[in-house]
Structures are given as C-alpha cells and as structure tokens.
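Case study 2.
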Amino acid sequence: MDKTNIRRFSALFQPGNIGRLCLKNRLIMAPMGNSLADGDGYVTTAMLDYYRARARGGVGLIITQLTSVSSNDMMPYSLAIYDDKFMPGMRRLVEAIHEQGAKVSIQLMHPGMLLLLLPSLPQSMTVKVPIITPWMVAKKPYHEVSQKDIERYVWDFAEAARRVMEVDADALELHACHGCLLSTFLSPATNRRTDQYGGSVENRVRFPQKTVMSIRQKVGRDFPLTVRINGNEDVEGGITADEVVQQAVILESAGADAISISSGLEYWSTLMAPPYSAPEGLNISVAEQVKKALKIPVITAGKIGPELAEQIVRDSKTDFIALGRPLLADAELPNKLRYGRLEDIRQCLYCNNCLRSIWRSCTVNPFLYKEAVLPLTPVRSPKRIMVVGGGLAGMQAAVLLAERGHHVSLHERDTELGGQWLVACAASGKQGFAAFINHLRRSLDRLDIPVALATEVTLEQVLVMKPDVVVVATGAIPQGLDVLRSMRCNVVQANDVIQSKIETNGRVVVIGGRMLGMEVAVLLAQQGKEVTLISRSRLGGRKGPDEKITYRALMRQLVELRVPLYLNTTVLEITEDSVISRLEDEVLSLPADTVVVAIGIKPVDTLVEELQGLVPEVYPIGDCVQPGNAAQATFGAARLATDT
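Prediction:
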C-alpha cells in the first residue's frame, strides 16, 4: 500500500450526498449499454456477474444500463421495466450490487432516435421524434410525437419509477441525453416544434420537466432522482452552454436531486464515447457552469482520468465523477486508486474496441462480459509452455498462463516487445496506447517470466527445448499491392510511415481507406504534406466500419484538413510519378512522389505448419490465425489460457 498515492486521491474518497442518499465516495459507474439482458429485457446471470464485479471494485454508486419504460419502444437486449413482471429480476440485480457494497440507481429511458443505431427496426416499431424533418434517415419509419403521446410517456416514466422504488433501488436516473426521446425535445437541433413543447428553452424542457414532476408525485420527494443531460451536442445548431444551465435550473426546480452532464447525439457525434483523439475532460467547463447555478450536486462524465478527477472534485468544479469505459477496462479501478496501487491499473485506452458492432470486447480486459470465469483456476499439472511472439496476443497469453501456474517462457524476434501494437502507439493521438504494453511488461516481470528478445525461433530450437506446449503468436506483416510499378517510385508501407522509419517526399498518395489509411493520411496532412487518399470501396471498408465513433472522428479530420478522397476507386498501376486509377468509367492519373500502402496485413503462420505433429500441443493465436483488432487478439489469448 502506497500512502503517498493514497493521499493523491483523498478528495475522490470523501463521502457525498445525492438527496438523502449518502455515497461512500465520489466515483460513480456511468450507465452503459452492454446487451447482457435477454431478448425480452429480463436480467440475466451474465448481467449479475458484470455488475457484481464493478460493485466489488469500489464505486460508490452504479447506474445501470438504460431500462425501457414503454413496451412498444425498446432497444433490443436492453433491460425493461415497463411491467411489474420485470421486478423480480430487477430486485435480484439490486441485491447483487448491494451485497458487494455499492449503491444502485436504475436508469429510465425511452430510446427515441437512438433506434437509428439499429440496422433495421422490428416490425411495427417506429422512431419517435419531436417533429419530422427533411434530414432524417431514409427508409426508417418515423412517428411525430403528439401531445397525447407525451402524456402517455410521462405516465410510463412515473410507473417505471414506482417499480424502481419498490425493488429497493437506492435512486433512479432519467436518461435525457445522447438522442433518446427526452433528449431530442431538449435539443434545438432536433426539436423544431411550434407548440408548447418547442421553440424556447422553457418549452423544449417542458416534456422532461413534466416527467420529473410526475415521478415526484409517484415516488415522493425523498426518493433520489438524477437527470442526465447533454452539455454539448457536437452538431451545428445544437444546444449552447447557456441553455444547458437554464435547463438544469428548471429540472432542479421540478424535483431533480442531481444533474449529470454528458455529451453528444449518438448517431451523429463522437462525444458520448470520446475516442483517443478527443481532449480529456471535455465536459468539465459546462459542468462547472451548471454547478455554479444549482444548489444540487453535479455529476460529470467524459474521458476523465484519476488525476483530473481528483483535481476537479477538489476544486469544486463538480461533485461526482461518472466513469464508463475505465470501469470496463478495470473493474477494480476505485479500489486500486484508494489503496495506492496505481501501477496495477489496466488503463482504458479509449480505443473504443468495446463499442464495435461485431466484436464487443475490451483490448486491455479480455474478460469483459465474461466475469464468471474469474479468478482463473490454478492448474493441477503445470506444463512447460513456450510462447513465440511478443505482441499483445503473446504477452497476454504468457501472463495468463503463468498466473494459472504453468512454466512459461516468451520469445520475440525483435529487440522490443509489442509487435503491431508499437505501430498503434506511434500513430497521432495514440501515445496513451503504450500504457497497455507497459502493464503487460510489468506483469511479465512480476511473474518472473523469462523473456528472450532478438530471438528468431526455429523448428530446431523448439525441438531442443522440448516444451509441452507451443503457443504461436507470430503476428502478421503488411500486405503489398499486386500492380505494376516503377522500381524508382517511392512505395512505402503505412506502418513504417507512422513509426517514422521512412520520410515521405513531395506529393503523397495513400492507398487504403480503412482506419490505418485514414490515420496515416491525417498524420501526413497534419505535417503539411499534400495528401490524397484512394480506397477501392467506401471509407471504413467495404461493409463500413465496425466502430463508428473513431471512424467519424477520423473522417472529420480528413474533411477539415481538406484531403482529397477518391472512393470506390481501383488502383491500376503505380508509375514513376503517379498512381493510375479507375473511378467508374474514367481513368485518372494522380501525381505521386510517394505512395503509402495501407491495405491490411497477412498472417505469418509458417512456424505453425512446421510444428504440427512434432510437439504435443501447438496453439496459434492472434493475427497469425486471422488478422483482427487488438481486443480479438487479447481475447484469443485469454480463451487459450482459460482452456489450457
């Protein structure tokens, strides 16, 4: 226990009140969707395990994921509370969190325009909006909310609040940000009504205000109620800071016990889950303005690290910190801060792999949503295991296998551990990604795992060492282009450019429109280079990006930097001073002094084939099996360690 580090965060571990609710510290788990409910909206065992882990980790309050209040407007695989039949499961959830020493608040929501995030809507479901406008996404069925609808939804919220109180939760939160129904009424960008629910700030806040007042009539004045609103919508014509303050004052008068500040409209913006490129503490300024105008506490979210959290609580810029993704990365974050174990923290990288539509996991925590398997069971018969490859997959596998009790050694052909992740760490704005490599290195040292660097492992060496198991994590190498090119043309790989191993000269053409291509184009444009980007499909790949927030941030940067984009364009040939391409029926010649290739990677799996039948157990993991994102690599390592 480091007493110096403990004192560094003393303000965060002072008790604080929200209404009559006393919290043991100033750290709150922010509400986050996790798809752990079943298809009908009931609590599941996996959800109980997930929340138990965060409650055990030391937060003062857990605010659950969104909980639907209306039967005909429900996000798939989210919680529901529109009927008494859901109360037994909600009661089990509340009890599970209480057993681990945390308080619990249940967040109530009508999804509104958040349904736009779904690829398709269930039959008979419509997107409820304040008013239908020309910019709304085509092929989606919209329904303009009437005054009668509003009265019904106010009743739905109040009835849901009654159920929250009856399942013995400690508080409830009203979701009024990010593009849910209440949020769209608050926003001048989405609410262009001309009746009593549109126009002025007072009119736009009327629906949420009525909802708060109706909830108060149902649950009484003493039951703690927080309201989460946007401090910034990150869209043209969105809400201003002055309007946020006015809304907060009105909601306080209606009966709110705290105002929680978040940001962003989820289907347009990047601020509700700010990526690595976003500034830290982006909601602090407006939260401070709101706090000065209120008598009730303020909760602030938005990429706030421990040091900044301590500072703004100590300086009375906010009362509580809402942590989201950092608690996915490390459920024990509060306890580790409290007891000064800073080096043990698995820091959130804000890489947003946890938000990917296809593969929802965490780069630094491969056991996210799989909390039931922890702690890993020690093995009865330890094996001698040789891990070949010191990238993320290899390092993570070595650590977890050693923690289970196996005798592990790690071998890396380069002079430094990290593999492809070193490229990520060198990209613009991603310097914080190195925290994960450092964490894994410390874990290797803590477990006394022998590490051999600058070692090219061969079949002969493996046979001499006679391991019981070989884990092959040899990674991948960049793909090349199968087109004609002049030998004098400067054709380079994006990885080498990002790591500053190669300097680009003159006019640059980047080939590849997925994340890597977008990142290297942004980097070069920021350096003042004349850059053009070519992609054979749309930006983000043929099917579009899996994770749209980081994609939106990069796309905005490309537009702001005025990088010409040639999409759905095929590269035909690279000549001495140009790239010849086809766009529809036209052949284009784009001047190029340097061509940067960013079209993906291919597995390095030779050793896997050589070892088959010669070693008792051979397990390939990571990119040498199939190139993927970092969360897939560490999850594969965790799955291997769990089963071996």
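The CA atoms of residues 409 and 529 lie 44 Å apart.
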